[in-house]
Specification:
The structure is a single chain. By secondary structure, the chain is mainly α. The protein is built from 6 helices and 2 strands. The chain has helices spanning about 10-20, 55-65, 90-100, 105-115, 140-150, 150-155; strands at about 45-50, 75-80. It has a two-stranded parallel ribbon. Helix 2 links the parallel strand 1 (about 45-50) and strand 2.
Amino acid sequence: MIHGGMKPNDKTNAIERAKKGFDECKVIITSSVIEIGLTMPYLRTLLVIGAEKYGAGTLHQFRGRLARKGGHGTFIMMSSKNINETNEDTVHRLNILKNNTRGSTIAEEDMIQRGFGSQNNKSTAQSGNLDGVFRGVKVLPSDITELLNTTTGSQLLKPRRDAKQ
């Protein structure tokens, strides 16, 4: 068992046992402390219970713990509710992970669902659109790409000749 409430030495010892593989440790029960980038070369199956409680980035980090030294890993997300009792946004977030493996794609899909968050340096909002780049307007990556592909958008990227250096 590994969790963040353990004494540092106990946690280190548990992680080291888990890293040694099947002969030393057949099953690991852990909190989200495993997300922090541990390399556990023999970890082949990961079951996340209550997956609906985690964001897309965290779930992707969990999945990234599998088969770090090569081979095949199995990632299972288990909801604590029936899927028909889970709200649409949560199902969409879980499906982002089901349908994508690239971190950049997952981040973009998650951002489209949740919004950019506040771009104001005094805000703490990490999702939503109200305090985004354009107040009250939902701007998607495709909107920015479209803008940059227009004549006006491409001119925005060119330095003005009359600008002082």
